Amino acid sequence: MNFIQAILMGLVQGLSEFLPISSSAHLVFTSNFYKVFKGIEIVQQSNEEVFFDIMVHLGTLVAVLIFFRKDIMKICSAMWNALKNKDWSDKEAKLGLYIILGTIITVALALPINEIAEALVFRPEVVGILLFITGIVLLASEYFSKHIPAKRDEVDIKTSILIGLAQGLAALPGFSRSGWTIATGLFNGLDRTAAARYSFLLSIPIILGASMVYPLVKIDIHEALTYNWHAIIAGTIVSALSGYLCIKYFMKFISKFSLGIFGYYCLVAGIFTAVFFYIN
Question: What is the pLDDT of residues 164-182, one digit of tens each?
Answer without folding.
Answer: 999 999 999 999 999 999 9
